[in-house]
Amino acid sequence: IADKGIGSADDVRRAGETLVRFSPELQRCEAALKRFITRNVYRSESVMREIIHIVGDAERYDAKTRGYMVIALSHFDAPESTQALRRALKDPEVGVQLYSLWSLGILGSKEASADILPFLKSDNEGLRKMAVYVLGVLGDKKHAQAIQPLLKDSAPDVSCAPSPVRFSVVSYPCKFHQCNFLESSRRFLWRSL
Questions:
Q1: CA dihedral 56, 58, 64, 65 (to 10 degrees)
Q2: pLDDT digit string (tens) for 158-174?
Q3: CB under 8 Å to 172, separation ≥6 — which residues?
Q4: CA-atom Rg of the chain in angstroms
């Protein structure tokens, strides 16, 4: 630090590089501790059960909390978490439904496809977009026929949804050239939060 002429916090910020590192031995110990905590604490079965309880208790927990817990369930690749996410698709709050769709996509839950299909006809464009995206991620070609009409959806966020299904199973040309994908994604995310 002295060799670099660091005398203040601003000097550290301007340095543009890491100035102090842990020893390789300490880095290995830290990585091992993180793996242990993640495996045995953060993703333990008892934590998963508590999260599932919170997701299902709309009287006691608000929609934002339930939404965060639905996202947390995407870190548990277990049948119980998938079932809880499928139940959460019926939550009355759009945010919880949206994050449930997203989490099912993260988990790659093909068995939830039948629960996702009704969202293609939702009045909410965010839910339609997420359903298209998740079904695309799941990659089941039998859903191409259900997704194809959404390529002509009046909402650009839906018709430009970045779905792998468009490139693999739907023969209708994607409208990426007709919209600014980054801008539509940013608008979608801000409206969804």
A1: -60
A2: 766 644 444 444 433 33
A3: 148, 151, 152, 166
A4: 21
